[in-house]
Every structure is written in structure tokens, then in C-alpha cells.
């Protein structure tokens, strides 16, 4: 039988090599890779294009329902449209747990909302309250349904675990063979800094970074690794922002500890200068870990180049600027009492933490990485999909160009020069931290399981066409 689709004449990039070939697709999967494949029912020309596996964003917050009633503005329909337009065909977001609730009683209806996704999706289960009921009954049941990874926070009032609780989660993951992902910052250190800054009258967005300097991240990274080492449980350290934390990961890797590191485009391109923007605009750049001083971006790139950090996720967590201005503490991603200032804007500690970036993740990484010569194409593929696929149980299906894999393909125009503007993005958020950012290289066609999902910025995939990815 002939191919449903042939992507013809492109330069293919995988995690290992770059070569010229056509890709033949049948029933949503790659059926053949080779030169001069016979005609398909549909033909897409990839002449002059670089063809990579679809991006896998293993860390994004979509429509997350928080215990305080705050709802993420990003819906599954909008967030997944943005993902596809930015070359990401699958993502892993989070099943919330509300402290004091079982998993089943947290965020009711969340999985039903996810059915609206246009991209393929999976979940990490957040654990905020590791009771025996949760660890002994609910987590094993979830794992059996293909939710094979847990997420824990070492900071944030409503989310954080004590070391004792973290150890119990690690032990459960070990027993069930699950991966554990960790947000590493020292909660008490941050609280102590926030109090001192507020007492000194420092309330501007930049004080967010002063409240959580690199040492706060480095300490928690070291502690998470040490506790994981004790239990002999692999972990993935989320959103590494600085050399100090990356160095702890590198040291542990060198002694054979199973620890992996992730970073995000914000830690490769943005800095304190952004938090200092006037008219409260700095609030657009409040994320945790915080943006660092000028110069730190290059040190994080070095840790990509030496292999310490193997995944670049978005940590997409969008709160509109309009929301941040008037809704202190929205979504639970803040710390300490919510203080309003004379003009009604919140003090730095009550600005909801997070930046939107699910659509810009890969264009920024391609441009700053591949186009500027910091990384080669196979490294780009490893960072954008392949490494996360192996780490989270999607190897062979996602992140690879090989017969049998899902036909998730991105056709990159390596010469396209664009300036990022929020008006052209597909997310539901009213700003992008990369407004006015110039990039070279753009995903002109995104194919998800053999269907053209985006062509020249137009999203063709319908809500509900994404599939839940059970992982094994
Ligand atoms: N950091 C953020 O900036 N937002 C969401 C959660 C997180 O850890
Ligand atoms: Zn986090
Ligand atoms: Zn996050
Ligand atoms: Zn603009």
C-alpha cells in the first residue's frame, strides 16, 4: 500500500545524525525513510528545510487548577495550539494535588479538560501531601494508567514537601519504578529573605530575584540529589537557572548518581535587566528560579554544551500581565503575605510566578543555539525532544525519526528571520517575555501523527485531536 503522506527532499536531523532523505508516513507513523520514495496520497515538499522530530515539552503548566480557586488562563485548546505552532507536538503537564486532599479529590474534571488538547499529552503527578493513601493506593493506580512520573516542590507555601515527605515520595517512586522531577529552592531561606526585603521597603519586581539568589537553588539542588542518592532513586532537576546549581548536578553525575538536569529558554536569554523594566513591566519576568545577573546565560549554555543539562523545557506557566497587576498570589505560585502597594500593584512576592513560552521555546532554542552556532542539529534534537522522550518513557514513539515512531515532524526554514510579537502567538496570555526578540529559523510546517497540524502559522489541528500518551 502506498504512503498516506511523503515529506520529500528535506535534510533530516535526529539525535545522532543529519542526512538527506524522504519520509513515508502510513497510519500516523513513519513507515519508511529513504531516497526517492514512491508518491504518497499527500505530498509535502521539504526542499531547503530541516526536518526534526516534533518537539516534546516535558514541563508545562496548562489550565492548572489551584486550590485557591485561581485558574490558569491557558486552556488545553489554546496552549496546545501554541505548542504546535512552535513545533511542539507533545507535552507533559501536571495533575495537581491540593494539600489535604486525595489525588482523586484534587482539581476535579482536570483530565476531562485535557481531552481538548490538539497536541499529544501526558501528565506528571504533583505530590503535595504524601499520605499513605496517596502513596500506597493512588500512585500505583495512576502508574498502571501510564502516569509514570511524579513532581515535587521544595518551595511554595501550598505545594512544598518537607525532606521527610520528599524521602517517602522517593521511596514510593523507587518501588514502582517511576521518575521523580523536583523544583529545587530552599523554602525557609526564601521566606527569610522576603521578610527582610519587605521590612526594608523593597517591593519592586527585581526584589523577587534578590529574595531567591543562586545559593538558594544550589542548596536545594544539592539536598535533592543527596536524598535521591540515599534512596537510590533517579531524579530530574527541573529548570536549572545557574552555574551554581548545574555544578552540583555535574558533580553528582561524575560520581555515578542518576540525576538529570533541565533548563529553559528564559535562563538562556533573559536576566535581571528584564526584571528592572519600568512601569511594573518587570513583573512579566517573574519566574522561579529567578532570572540571574548578566553573564549567567552563557554559563548555562556551557552546561548544555558539556552535557550536564540535557533537556530544554518551557516551564510555560502563563499569567497575563493584566492578571499579575491586580491579582496577588494567583494560582498559588507566590510566597508570603500578599501586600498591595500604593498604586495597587502587588509587592514582588505576590506576583504569580511563571512565564509563558510553550510556542517560543523551540524557535528561541533553534535561533540562539543552532543559528548562532552554540549547538549542532543533533544536540538541538536531543534538547527539544529525544532526551525527554527516553527519560519519561516515550522512547521509540516520540523524539525520533525512525520507522514505527509517531510521524511527528517539524519542517524548519533555517533562513527565516522573524521578530517575535505576542500578537502573532497562539497562547491565551497577553504578553511574551520575548516581545521584539529577533530569531533566525522558524517552524513553517508542523505534522502531528501524519497530519499537517500547522502550516505557515495557521493551526489546522482541531481541539480534541491530541491523544493521551500512556507511558511505560
Ligand atoms: N516556577 C514558575 O516560574 N512557575 C510555575 C512553577 C514554577 O516552579
Ligand atoms: Zn518549578
Ligand atoms: Zn514548572
Ligand atoms: Zn509586538
Give the names of the bound compounds.
dihydropyrimidine-2,4(1H,3H)-dione, zinc ion
- Choose one word for the global shape: globular
pLDDT < 50 stretches: none
Give the C-alpha Rg: 21 Å
Give the fraction of residues assigned to helices: 25-40%
Largest sheet: 9 strands, mixed
What is the end-to-end distance?
Answer: 31 Å
Total count of strands: 17
The helix tally amounts to 14
Query: By helix and strand content, what is the structural category?
Result: alpha/beta
Strand content: 15-25%
Report mean pLDDT, rounded to a whole number: 96
Pfam families: Amidohydro_1
Organism: Teichococcus aerophilus
InterPro entries: Amidohydro-rel, Hydantoinase/dihydroPyrase, Metal-dep_hydrolase_composite, Metal_Hydrolase, Metallo-dep_Hydrolases_sf
Cofactor: Zn(2+)
Amino acid at each position: 500500500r502506498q504512503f498516506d503522506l511523503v515529506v520529500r527532499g528535506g535534510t533530516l536531523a535526529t539525535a545522532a545524525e543529519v542526512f538527506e532523505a524522504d519520509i513515508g508516513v502510513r497510519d500516523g507513523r513513519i513507515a519508511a525513510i529513504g531516497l526517492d520514495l514512491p508518491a504518497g496520497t499527500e505530498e509535502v515538499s521539504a526542499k531547503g528545510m530541516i526536518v526534526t522530530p516534533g518537539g516534546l515539552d516535558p514541563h508545562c503548566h496548562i489550565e492548572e487548577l489551584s486550590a485557591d480557586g485561581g485558574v490558569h488562563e491557558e486552556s488545553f485548546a489554546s496552549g496546545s495550539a501554541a505548542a504546535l505552532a512552535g513545533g511542539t507536538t507533545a507535552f507533559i503537564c501536571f495533575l495537581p494535588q491540593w494539600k489535604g486532599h486525595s489525588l482523586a479529590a484534587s482539581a476535579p474534571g482536570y483530565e476531562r479538560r485535557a481531552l481538548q488538547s490538539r497536541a499529544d499529552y501526558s501528565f506528571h503527578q504533583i505530590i503535595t501531601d504524601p499520605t499513605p493513601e496517596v502513596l500506597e493506593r493512588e500512585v500505583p493506580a495512576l502508574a498502571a494508567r501510564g502516569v509514570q512520573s511524579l513532581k515535587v516542590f521544595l518551595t511554595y507555601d501550598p505545594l512544598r514537601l518537607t525532606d521527610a515527605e520528599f524521602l517517602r515520595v522517593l521511596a514510593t517512586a523507587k518501588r514502582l519504578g517511576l521518575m521523580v522531577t523536583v523544583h529545587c529552592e530552599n523554602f525557609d531561606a526564601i521566606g527569610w529573605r522576603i521578610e527582610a526585603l519587605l521590612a526594608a521597603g523593597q517591593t519592586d519586581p527585581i526584589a523577587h530575584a534578590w529574595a531567591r539568589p543562586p545559593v538558594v537553588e544550589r542548596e536545594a539542588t544539592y539536598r535533592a540529589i543527596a536524598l535521591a542518592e540515599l534512596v537510590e532513586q533517579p531524579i530530574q532537576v527541573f529548570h536549572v537557572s545557574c552555574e551554581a546549581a548545574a555544578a552540583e548536578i555535574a558533580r553528582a553525575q561524575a560520581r555515578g548518581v542518576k540525576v538529570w538536569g533541565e533548563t529553559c529558554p528564559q535562563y538562556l536569554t533573559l536576566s535581571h535587566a528584564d526584571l528592572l523594566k519600568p512601569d511594573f513591566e518587570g513583573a512579566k519576568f517573574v519566574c522561579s528560579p529567578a532570572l540571574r545577573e548578566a553573564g549567567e546565560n552563557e554559563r548555562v549554555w556551557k552546561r548544555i554544551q558539556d552535557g550536564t543539562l540535557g533537556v530544554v523545557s518551557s516551564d510555560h506557566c502563563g499569567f497575563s500581565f493584566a492578571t499579575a497587576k491586580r491579582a496577588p498570589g494567583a494560582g498559588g505560585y507566590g510566597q508570603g503575605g500578599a501586600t498591595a502597594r500604593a498604586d495597587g500593584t502587588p509587592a514582588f512576592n505576590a506576583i504569580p510566578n511563571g512565564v509563558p513560552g510553550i510556542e517560543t521555546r523551540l524557535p528561541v532554542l533553534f535561533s540562539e543555539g543552532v543559528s548562532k552556532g552554540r549547538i549542532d542539529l543533533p544536540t538541538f534534537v536531543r534538547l527539544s525532544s529525544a532526551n525527554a522522550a527516553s527519560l519519561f518513557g516515550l522512547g521509540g514513539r516520540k523524539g525520533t525519526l525512525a520507522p514505527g515512531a509517531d510521524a511527528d515532524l517539524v519542517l524548519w526554514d533555517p533562513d527565516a528571520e522573524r521578530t517575535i510579537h505576542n500578537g502573532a502567538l497562539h497562547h491565551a496570555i497577553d504578553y511574551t517575555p520575548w516581545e521584539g526578540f529577533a530569531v533566525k529559523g522558524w517552524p513553517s510546517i508542523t505534522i502531528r501523527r501524519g497530519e499537517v497540524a500547522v502550516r505557515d502559522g495557521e493551526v489546522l489541528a482541531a481541539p480534541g485531536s491530541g491523544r493521551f500518551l500512556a507511558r511505560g
